[in-house]
Amino acid sequence: MRRGLVGCGIALGVLLIAGGVFWALRGTGVKAGNPNERLYTVKRGTLIVDVTESGAIEPVRTVEIKSRVSGRLAALYVDEGDRVRQGQLLARIDPREVQQQVEQGSAQVESAQASTERARIALEIQAKEARLQLRQAELRVEQLERELQAQPIMTQAAIRAAETAYQNAQENLRLLQQVKHPQERVDAENAVRDAEARLQEAQRHYERVRTLLEKGYVSRQQLDAAQTALTLAQSQLQSARQRQQQLAEQQRIELETAKASLESARAELERARASAVQDEIKRKAYEAALTEREAARNRLREIEMRQLELKQAQAAEKQASSQLRNWLIQLAETDVRSPIDGIVTRRYREVGELVMSGTTGFGEGTPIMQVADLSQMRVKLNLNELDVAKVRVGMPVEVKVDALPERTFRGVVKRIAPAAQQPSGGGSPLGALGVVKFAVEIYLQQSDAALRPGMTARCRILTAVRQNALLLPLEALGKEGERYYVLKLHRNTRDVPNKPRYEKVFVKVGLRNTSHAEILEGLQEGDQVVKPPFAGPARRRFEIREGREEERER
Fold first, then answer.
1. 466 pairs with which residues across the strands?
2. C-alpha separations of 472 from 35, 483, 509, 543 in Å
3. CA separation for the pair 430, 495 (Å, rounded)
């Protein structure tokens, strides 16, 4: 009986929904045929859009402790779980083999030092003899050089002075003949012509004023002024002609003086050149002394060979000393110390086992133990390409650890891989299930002694948070093409008193998460809407509540 009633109720509900669809598509109000139809109220609240993924807790800084010296483990001083400080002694490699190498290196250094001292003594003896011979040759060269430099320097100086004087006399004569005298003559001739022109102008002016005076047009004073100007012009012309004559006489004297100076300079130059013949004998003696000095220098080059031998011995000594220092460093490296503060998370070897150094070039070396700094922890996530597009560096993260369900840790997105993860065998980053993954690192903002590497952590990355937003459940939204709409409740007391009616209203949707959407336009706080009709197959949604999975129809 109960199943029959339920079936009838479902059939009635289907009919009501079909009728609601018909009237909603017409865009007119529809009467509510089912008083128990579910209503949704537009409310204000906080909308959070997040991305959730799980990963494992791990330290940000983890160091594998290896030895720089190959050998057998003689002692281990810490165990897993022990807290260590930077520089603390963790293990010791048997130092006997390295100590033997140190002793051999010390003997090689002593032998190289003896060879260096022997080469140094031989160099000092031969260097004294060669330097003495060279010094005698240099003194001979210096003596002849002074004798040679005395007269030749004076001769060359006299020749250069005579040549300079001769060139100056030539240049002076050329300037007089081609530049100075022609220009002075032109200037004098121009002065005479200018004086003649002024005289003619003064004469014409005087005649014109005298004619006007006879006619009574000008005064006697104007005639006197014209007479004065005429006299002045005649005087200027006479002065210009006298200067022209004086210039001709002066130029003749200057030209004769310049020619005489040129002849005297030429004679002095010939005398200076004739005295240079006396320097040849002294020059040949000086050249012979130079040859003797060069031979002494060549004998000194043999000392350079001895110096090279000394440098070779010193280089061998340095090489032996460097090798000894290297063995001493390796002897010190037999004590394996912690490079950081942290906790020993793993111990790979036991006392008596052989380990290889990480500097042999044939491998990465044998790890002895692992030390991790647990003061800074992180979670590495693998997000698909749809989720990683929403995530940015610096976004806040809520971290829940399965082992500590009552606590929530805060974190922040620190790094996002720029490229998708490659499979171990290479090839395309597209996985077997067709999902592209990107590595994302979450750094925890606080540390806790209860956190252990390897614990499973569920991370909720808050990609967007909108405060005081108008919220509406997703199931209250309908979609028509690319537009969203709701069936808004309103009452029309004139047509059908006290009966609810619904109006189709298109809305603008903002942020959305898995349950709610932000309404930007079309509704106000407190508005009520009814769930829009759904003509397709029934949709099911699974929710986790109180540790169990529940199925709900939509």
1. 47
2. 21, 16, 10, 19
3. 62
What gap in Å lies between CA 130 and CA 313, rounded to an integer? 22
| Tens digit of each residue's pLDDT (9 = 90 or more) over 10-65 | 444 434 444 443 333 333 344 444 545 688 989 999 888 888 899 998 898 888 88
Q: What is the pLDDT of residues 249-293, one digit of tens each?
A: 887 888 888 888 888 888 887 877 776 666 777 778 888 888 888
Return the closest-CA partner of residue 464 out of 59, 166, 77, 47.
47
Contact predicate 65/86, CB 8 Å: no
In angstroms, the CA 89 to CA 370 distance is 14
Q: How far apart are CA 53 and CA 440, in angstroms?
A: 10
Name the DSSP letter for residue 279: G
CA quadruple 436, 437, 438, 439: dihedral, nearest 10: -160
How many degrees, rounded to 5, is the angle at CA 482 between CA 477 and CA 483?
Answer: 45
pLDDT in tens, 217-255: 888 888 888 889 888 888 888 888 888 888 888 878 888
What 8-state DSSP symbol labels residue 423? P
Q: Find the mean pLDDT for residues 379-398.
A: 90
Q: Which of 413, 435, 371 is nearest to 90 (CA)?
A: 371
Residue 24 to residue 31: CA distance in whole angstroms: 11
How far is CA 394 from each of CA 193, 414, 440, rounded to the nearest angstrom? Answer: 100, 6, 12
- Reported as half-sphere exposure (CB side, CA atoms, 13 A), residue 57 has a value of 27
**Do you know the residue count of the chain?**
554
- Strands laid side by side in the 89-93 sheet: 335-337, 89-93, 71-76, 354-355
Measure Cα distances from 9 to 19, 20, 233, 483, 552 in Å: 15, 16, 145, 32, 19
The full set of domains in the chain, from first to last, is 25-65+358-553 (2.40.30.170), 101-293 (1.10.287)
Which of the four pLDDT bands, split at 50, 70 and 90, describes residue 531?
confident
SS3 441: strand
CB–CB of 206/228 below 8 Å?
no
What three-state secondary structure class fits 156?
helix
Distance CA 114, CA 118 (A): 6
